[in-house]
Design brief:
Elements (H helix, E strand, L loop, with lengths): L1 E4 L2 H10 L9 E4 H14 L6
Parallel strand pairs: 1-2
């Protein structure tokens, strides 16, 4: 499972709440982090940024 949040502060809060709901090992990221990862992957694969 992936939770996208607006910022790290929000994700820190969510990380504390999830175990109480029985969810562990959940991947968390911000939208900007995901964009950066996709951009880096595209460059490594020889793609061009659009």
């Amino acid at each position: 499972m992936l939770i996208l949040g607006p910022n790290r502060t929000f994700l820190s809060y969510i990380a504390e709440v999830l175990p109480a709901l029985g969810e562990v090992g959940v991947r968390q990221s911000t939208v900007m982090d995901e964009i950066a990862v996709g951009h880096r992957r595209g460059r490594r694969a020889g793609g061009h940024a659009r």
